[in-house]
């Protein structure tokens, strides 16, 4: 009989793929390194996207009713009412694992789901490791880091707070956070050649391919930019084929409009709200257009795909621009402005994309620059440290 797992790692996070995929990557590394002694349980949000992603990945998970913090009256009431419920569910998950004779370790993946579960871990006195993914940490991660330090001041020097991107020196509270390489799940890394990847997707194996993504939830302004580009200047897309992920929040009419616009432009395209095998898409891509969430930046890094990043424009701290900065500084990416207004994007952002589509030598130089970057093996790095802490 196989030996029962001796440690349960609770991964706390959710609400978008960006808060789940790094946890899935670490869980995979744990299974690889210690297949018989570890168990991973995801405590995620009750949003449909979380269940979809975790079911697709065959992960063990439990939804919790966590809600984002807000100062507006109604969202604030929802946040307050959900906090206690989420803490109690977190404590129950910890006690269930203990009842099975297991050690328990919480891995906080950041965001609104992680915060109340960190509180549960503190009350239950279990170890906590935090993973920060953005170059400018959000409020939840700053709060979590303070709580971790306050709960275990004698262990303050232990590497329990990791960040996949260096934090600017002006953020002194993060001076002792441990910087690790990017974290990318295996399913997001290309395993086939570009020609074979395109063939598997039903595309022409030798034709250049543009990949467009706004993440698991989508990006309406990016979707609109490509729609307007295909309608107004279809010659820019001549010779290309397109993989376009519109996002789970996109209605069917936009997906159909994009498909029709690409067809009218004479461009073969695969348009879909959700991508199960994103590694195959990255493998097929010669160029990508993407938001600059930490997950997207890490995937472009790992797959060495030249990318035009359009950071989410509504963040006050513009942290997505900082996320993509290392790739731009390396010469492998371009950061442009999402002007939100469709006419402004068509006038000022579309020319940048057109230039990249038309300049093969520039794309080649960008890909070469990306190959000089270090491996994106942060998941293995964190998994090894977690295992050291439990032995």
Quickly describe the structure.
This protein is of the alpha/beta class and 391 residues long.
Features of the shown structure:
single chain; 391 residues; alpha/beta; Rossmann fold; 2 domains; seven-stranded parallel beta sheet; 15 helices
Question: What is the element layout, followed by pairings?
Answer:
Blueprint: E1 7-12, H1 21-33, E2 38-45, H2 48-56, E3 61-64, H3 73-99, E4 103-108, H4 114-124, E5 128-132, H5 139-151, E6 161-163, E7 178-179, H6 194-200, E8 209-213, H7 220-232, E9 241-245, H8 252-264, E10 269-272, H9 278-284, E11 287-290, H10 294-303, E12 307-309, H11 319-330, E13 333-335, H12 342-348, H13 350-358, H14 360-371, H15 378-390
Parallel strand pairs: 1-2, 1-4, 2-3, 4-5, 5-6, 6-7, 8-9, 8-11, 9-10, 11-12, 12-13
Helix pairs in contact: 1-15, 3-4, 4-5, 6-9, 7-8
In words, what does this structure look like?
The chain is an alpha/beta fold. It folds into 2 domains: about 5-185 and about 375-390, 3-Layer(aba) Sandwich (Rossmann fold), CATH 3.40.50.2000; about 190-370, Glycogen Phosphorylase B (Rossmann fold, 3-Layer(aba) Sandwich), CATH 3.40.50. The protein is about 45% helix and about 15% strand. It is built from 15 helices and 13 strands. The strands form 2 sheets. The protein has a 7-stranded parallel sheet with strand order 3-2-1-4-5-6-7, with helices on both faces. Helix 5 (about 140-150) links the parallel strand 5 and strand 6. Helix 4 (about 115-125) packs parallel to helix 5. The radius of gyration is 21 Å and the shape is globular. The model has no long low-confidence stretch (mean pLDDT about 90).
């Amino acid at each position: 009989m196989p030996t029962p797992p001796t440690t349960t790692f609770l991964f706390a996070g959710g609400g978008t793929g960006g808060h789940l995929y790094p946890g899935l990557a670490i869980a995979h590394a744990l299974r690889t390194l210690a297949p018989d002694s570890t168990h991973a349980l995801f405590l995620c949000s009750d949003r449909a996207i979380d269940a979809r992603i975790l079911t697709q990945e065959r992960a063990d998970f439990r939804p919790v009713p966590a809600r984002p913090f807000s100062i507006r009256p109604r969202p604030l009431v929802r946040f307050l009412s959900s906090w206690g419920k989420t803490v109690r569910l977190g404590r129950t998950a910890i006690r269930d694992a203990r009842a099975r004779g297991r050690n328990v370790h919480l891995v906080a993946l950041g965001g609104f789901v992680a915060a109340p579960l960190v509180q549960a871990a503190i009350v239950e006195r279990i170890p906590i490791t935090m993973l920060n993914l953005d170059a400018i940490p959000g409020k939840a991660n700053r709060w979590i880091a303070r709580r971790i330090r306050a709960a275990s001041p004698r262990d303050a020097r232990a590497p329990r707070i990791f960040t996949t991107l260096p934090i600017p020196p002006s953020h002194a509270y993060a001076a002792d956070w441990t910087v690790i390489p990017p974290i990318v799940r295996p399913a997001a890394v290309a395993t086939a050649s570009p020609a074979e990847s395109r063939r598997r997707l039903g595309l022409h194996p030798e034709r250049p391919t543009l990949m467009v993504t706004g993440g698991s939830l989508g990006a309406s302004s990016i979707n609109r930019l490509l729609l307007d580009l295909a309608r107004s200047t279809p010659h820019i897309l001549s010779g290309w084929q397109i993989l376009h992920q519109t996002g789970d929040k996109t209605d069917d009419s936009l997906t159909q409009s994009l498909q029709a616009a690409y067809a009218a432009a004479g461009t073969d395209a695969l348009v879909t709200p959700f991508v199960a095998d994103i590694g195959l898409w990255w493998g097929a891509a010669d160029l990508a257009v993407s938001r600059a969430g930490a997950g997207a930046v890490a995937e472009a890094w790992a797959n060495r795909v030249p990318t035009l990043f359009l950071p989410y424009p509504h963040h006050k701290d513009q942290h997505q621009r900082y996320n993509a900065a290392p790739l731009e500084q390396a010469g492998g990416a371009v950061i442009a402005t999402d002007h939100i207004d469709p006419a402004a994007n068509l006038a000022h952002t579309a020319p940048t994309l057109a230039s990249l589509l038309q300049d093969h030598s520039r794309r080649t130089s960008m890909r070469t620059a990306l190959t000089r970057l270090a491996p994106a093996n942060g998941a293995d790095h964190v998994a090894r440290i977690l295992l050291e802490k439990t032995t």
